[in-house]
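Throughout our pipeline, every protein is held as a single compact record rather than as scattered files. Such a record has a labelled line for the sequence and another for the backbone structure tokens. The remainder of this section carries one protein's record, kept here as part of the documentation:
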Amino acid sequence: MAIQIDRLSDPAVRAFVAAVNAHDEEAFRRLLTPDATMADDGSDRDLVEWADREIFSSHGHLDVTRESDGGRALVADYRNDTWGEMRTRWSFVVADDGRISRFETGQA
């Protein structure tokens, strides 16, 4: 069973999931530090290109099923128009200003 977004523990991660699910690119970008980085399945990717392809142009959606590490590590059912649905893991590094400086995702 999915955890409701408003019940996710970490405010930055909560806002990240909400922005992804709302397909709100502007909110998504505001959540990230200017030098934010990301990795997918262990390989660093261009964050802007990856987000456009894997989230926004393909209608990505996260249903979080478990959180740990104070809400900065998630297991979620992720789906988009390209890959369908899969179980994924997400981890986040949140900077002192409350924005995300790095996230990593991949199949769980």
Q: What stands out?
A: The helical segments are 11-22, 25-30, 47-56.
